[in-house]
Amino acid sequence: MSETAVFAREFLRSPLRTASLIPSSSRLVERLVAAVPERGEPVVVELGPGTGPATAAIQHKLAGRGRHIAVELNERLAAHLVERFPGAETVAESAWELPRILADRGLGAADVVVSSLPWSAFTGPQGQALVPAIASVLSETGVYTQFAYAFAHWAPPSRRRLAQLRRAFEEVVASRTVYRNLPPALVYSARRPRVPAGQPAPPAAPIANRTAS
Ligand SMILES: C[S@@+](CC[C@H](N)C(=O)[O-])C[C@H]1O[C@@H](n2cnc3c(N)ncnc32)[C@H](O)[C@@H]1O
Question: In its UniProt record, which GO terms are filed under biological process (predicted)?
Answer without folding.
Answer: methylation
